[in-house]
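FORM 12-B: Structure-to-Sequence Request
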């Protein structure tokens, strides 16, 4: 038997329906905040991620799905969205052709060769938003607020952790302080962190393997080492977050896995009865556009993991749609059922027909199995009189309609559905 590739999931049935509705809600929320969709390909040249995400990051060093195509080009399946969007932003001259700030979002699959476990997959999905051409801390606050609005819509309990990781001016000196601090502790660090001292010392701060932040309590932090303009930016960010009513907890150990961040970095963790679950993260990346060869353009954004979001949404957040089913009990009734199905298809009700004639008892069993709450029956008598029998499978109540009385039937279904919906709302 051939099974799915490790770490990649199928989605169908009720879960697929709920996922679709979750995506629709997300699109509505971010589109109302004036973000427009931006689609980029799954495949990019690997050089983009090496330059954009950073050679020393885990994502690039260990987790890339990369291969040579038939012409020997080295390509990779996108591990995150920002680098691709920045590539497209430069390629299409958006800085010249569109009004700034340019606000966009994307929803789609991403690929990382990680060890699969709950909440961590090799194909996963993200909502991302990015804002180009605005360096203000207020725009960072709006960006973080947008992530919060999504979580609040789904009634999720969360915490926002914020930090500033400085800029080209102040970070090099801080980096040196970290190198100096950890050099004397090298033998107590994990193998990866021993290498990170030289390649990417900031990543020592959020290492989950040797966890230095739990062991040492005098690690120098970036927020004590910011230059004047980064310090002002961070203060104004905190102020704007307060106005947005976002309660950001200052966490100097948020450094993010990707190299491109400047100043604002944040993560959102969901509180799930004792445990915490990283659901979104992002920050400012003022140098990435110019590093990849574009015009100097400040930018900020976040990515939210949709599998993690999906698992946090309560089972009863979405009510199931009302399903009704139509059956013919004899050959003479089949064409009538086809007519009925055609007319029902024009209305906003979820109806399906089963055209193969069957006994009443069998039809009842099939309707029940399909989760239908209403069943329509055309038997010999009904076919003769051009009638159709409607049966409420919850109450057993039956009503006879003329086959052409589709509007009456649909109204009956919609009223029942809205009654059920308001009953569950109370
Ligand atoms: P990142 O792009 O690493 O900042 O990740 C942003 C968010 O995407 C995380 O907070 C997770 O919710 C989600 N995420 C990242 N990697 C995975 C993965 N392998 N599987 C599922 N979700 C992921």
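FORM 12-B RESPONSE
SEQUENCE OUT:
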């Amino acid at each position: 038997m051939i099974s799915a590739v490790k770490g990649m999931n199928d989605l169908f049935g009720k879960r697929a329906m709920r996922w679709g509705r979750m995506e629709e809600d997300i699109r509505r929320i971010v589109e109302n905040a004036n973000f427009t969709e931006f689609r980029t390909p799954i495949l990019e040249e690997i050089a983009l991620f090496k330059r954009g995400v950073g050679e020393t990051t885990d994502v690039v060093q260990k987790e890339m799905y990369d291969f040579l195509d038939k012409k020997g080009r080295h390509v990779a399946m996108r591990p995150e969205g920002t680098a691709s969007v920045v590539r497209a932003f430069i390629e299409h001259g958006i800085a010249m052709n569109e009004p700034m700030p340019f606000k966009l979002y994307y929803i789609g699959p991403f690929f990382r060769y990680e060890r699969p476990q709950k909440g961590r997959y090799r194909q996963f999905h993200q909502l991302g938003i990015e804002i180009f051409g605005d360096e203000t801390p207020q725009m960072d606050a709006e960006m973080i607020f947008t992530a919060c609005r999504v979580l609040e819509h789904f009634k999720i309990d969360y915490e926002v952790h914020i930090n500033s990781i400085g800029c080209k001016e102040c970070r090099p000196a801080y980096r040196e302080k970290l190198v100096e601090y950890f050099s004397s502790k090298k033998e107590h660090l994990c193998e990866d962190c021993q290498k990170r001292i030289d390649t990417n010392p900031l990543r020592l701060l959020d290492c989950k393997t040797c966890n230095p932040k739990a062991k040492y309590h005098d690690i120098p932090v970036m927020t004590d080492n910011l230059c004047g303009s980064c310090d002002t930016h961070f203060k104004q960010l905190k102020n704007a977050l307060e106005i947005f009513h976002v309660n950001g907890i200052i966490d100097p150990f948020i450094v993010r896995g990707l190299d491109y961040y400047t100043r604002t970095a944040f993560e959102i963790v969901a509180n799930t009865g004792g445990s915490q679950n990283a659901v979104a993260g992002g920050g400012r990346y003022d140098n990435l556009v110019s590093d990849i060869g574009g015009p100097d353009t400040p930018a900020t954004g976040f990515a939210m993991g949709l599998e993690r979001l999906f698992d946090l949404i309560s089972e009863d957040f979405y009510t199931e749609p009302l399903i009704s089913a139509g059956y013919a009990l004899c050959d003479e009734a089949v064409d009538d059922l086809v007519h009925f199905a055609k007319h029902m298809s024009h209305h906003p009700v979820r109806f399906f027909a089963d055209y193969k004639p069957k006994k009443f008892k069998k039809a009842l069993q099939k309707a029940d199995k399909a989760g239908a709450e209403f069943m329509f029956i055309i038997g010999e008598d009904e076919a003769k009189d051009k009638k159709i029998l409607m049966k409420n499978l919850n109450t057993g109540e039956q009503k006879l309609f003329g086959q052409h009385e589709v509007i009456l039937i649909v109204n009956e279904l919609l009223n029942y559905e809205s009654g059920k919906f308001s009953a569950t709302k109370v």
